[in-house]
Design brief:
Strand order of the largest sheet: 1-2
Helix content: 25-40%
Structural class: mainly alpha
GO biological process, one term: response to wounding
CATH class of the largest domain: Alpha Beta
Order of helices and strands: HHHEE
Organism: Solanum lycopersicum
Family: Belongs to the protease inhibitor I13 (potato type I serine protease inhibitor) family.
Pfam families: potato_inhibit
Distance between the termini: 53 Å
Number of domains: 2
Strand content: 5-15%
Largest sheet: 2 strands, parallel
GO molecular function: serine-type endopeptidase inhibitor activity
Number of helices: 3
Oligomer: single chain
């Protein structure tokens, strides 16, 4: 019984140590609102976002299909699977990862 009481006390102590989350308002300042809009826009890119049906397709053909299905994508590098890449996000880029035979091995996704 004492261990249950100790767990309850620890739970309440932890729960009270966290701040409550609040929605942002215009009064928070234009910088905060601008950053939130930029963050949200990353998740609202136009057109098709991923192509699982292109796994196993030759990378050059996959590139043509992506360009046809989403004209807003202008940067489609073909990379060997496992190549290092930057972690930035762009709505106009899809990376194609292929194997040494030139076939797509990962789902092409807007990155």
């Amino acid at each position: 019984m004492d261990s249950k009481l100790a767990h309850i006390i620890v739970f309440f102590l932890l729960a009270t140590s966290f701040k409550t989350l609040m929605a942002r308002k215009e009064s928070d300042g234009p910088e905060v609102i601008k950053l939130l809009k930029e963050f949200e826009s990353e998740f609202w890119c136009k057109g098709k976002q991923f192509w699982p049906e292109l796994i196993g397709v030759p990378a050059k053909l996959a590139k043509e299909i992506i360009e046809k299905e989403n004209p807003s994508i202008s940067d489609i590098p073909i990379l060997l699977n496992g190549s290092p890449v930057t972690m930035d996000f762009r709505c106009d880029r899809v990376r194609l990862f292929d194997n040494i035979l030139g076939y797509v091995v990962q789902i092409p996704t807007v990155t």
